[in-house]
Amino acid sequence: MSRRWIQNSNRCSDEYLDGIEDFIEFARRHNPGATRIRCPCRRCNNTLWETIENVGFHLVRNGMIETYSIWNLHEEQLDHASSSNATRMDSVEPIVDPNDQVMDIIEDVFPFASTNINHEREDDVPTPIDSAEFEQYEKLLKNANQELYLGCESFSVLTAIVELMHGKIKYRMSNLCFDYFLGVFKRMLPTDNCLPKDHKHTQKLLNGLGLGYEKIHACKNNCMLFYKEHETLDTCLICNESRFKMTSQNRTTKIPQKVMRYLPLKPRLQRLYMSTHTATDMRWHKEKRVDDDVMRHPAEGRHGKSSIERSPSLLLILEM
């Protein structure tokens, strides 16, 4: 039975209404005697239970979840055990050792260093490595192999830092809040633990991974950036606002009124192409796109192709 009706945006069409009737009949047949079933509409999202009649109304009003093509939450696995089991297997995230993930990150950042050390043969010509870069590599490798505390097998120093910083960014935690919880964790752990004491020291340990940002001073009123030819100016050319805050005369460093953090694009694109985990996806537009009049991706559509053709810079990025 085709279920293309689920993606039909016209919920008043005969195809969509017939599809809802098929689903209701399916739900009645596989849930005999049940007065309520999970509602797969976009609002209830299979988390709320409704009467079968209300489920029909919800599907007309809100539409069905577009990805819910195998009705495993409505006992379809009894009829299609193999397909539903495959679906459940795909939905389970594989268990990955966080320490292995961190080592993969280091190898992505320093591919030449890891190749020279681990895979050098007699017929290989070693790739020259910058001494400062190699020093960063050794520092990260040391933290990746060092236990968080004596006897800890689950986390290395670098793994713990990466996990904590990931949580900080994901849940938008302020630096002060991060410092507080980092101090609490440090006191909870054994006294010989190697966890950094605050956010500043955590950032220092992660500097070797690269992909940092540039701080560019900006006008308080967003008139201009003190950048390139304007880098030495102390006042805004448009509103004459001072570049720096008023501080005591004894202070040696000046505090800017506003700072913009610039994330350079070029090194980030280079990292995506250097990593074995993302390089294949970055080359998809060049190597995997099929021209058979069937649209499988927005880039294969008429508007997608025309936008790429009109933008040589975009084509360069996609096919770099």
Describe the structure.
The chain has 320 residues and is mainly α. It is 45% helix and 5% strand. It contains 14 helices and 4 strands. The strands form 2 sheets. A two-stranded antiparallel sheet has the order 1-2. A two-stranded antiparallel ribbon has the order 3-4. The protein is extended, with a radius of gyration of 28 Å. It starts with 13 loop residues before the first helix and ends with a helix. The model is unreliable at 78-95, 116-125 and 310-320 (pLDDT under 50). Pfam families: Transpos_assoc. It comes from Prunus dulcis. This is Transposase-associated domain-containing protein.
Number of E-type strands: 4
Q: Biggest sheet: strands, sense, closure?
A: 2 strands, antiparallel
Helix content: 40-55%
Shape: extended
Q: Spell the H/E element sequence.
A: HEEHHHHHHHHEEHHHHH
Strand order of the largest sheet: 1-2
The CA-CA distance between the termini, in Å, is 43 Å
Subunit organisation of the chains: single chain
- Residue fraction in strands: 5-15%
Cα Rg: 28 Å
Contiguous low-pLDDT stretches (5 residues minimum) are 78-95, 116-125, 310-320
Mean pLDDT: 77
Structural class: mainly alpha
Number of helices: 14
Organism: Prunus dulcis
InterPro entries: Transpos_assoc (IPR029480)
Protein name: Transposase-associated domain-containing protein
Pfam family, one: Transpos_assoc
